[in-house]
Amino acid sequence: MTTPPTIRSLRARSVLAPMPRPLRTASGAIPAAPLVLIDVQTDQDVVGRAYVFCYTPLMLKPVSAILKEIEGLIAGKPVAPADRFHDLSRTFRLLGRQGLVGMALSGLDMALWDALGRAADRPVVELLGGTATPIPAYDSFGLVDPVADRAMLEQSIGAGFRAIKIKIGEGGAAEDAAMVRAVRDIIGADIQLMVDLNQSQSATDAIRRIDRLADCDLTWVEEPVAAEDLEGHARVRAASPVPIQTGENWWFPSDMARAIAAGACDMAMPDLIKIGGITGWLRAMALAEAASLPLSSHLFIEASAHVLAVSPTCHFLEHLDMAGAVMAEPAPLAGGMITARGPGLGMAWNEDAVARFLVA
Question: Which helix (H) or strand (E) holds 339?
Answer without folding.
Answer: none
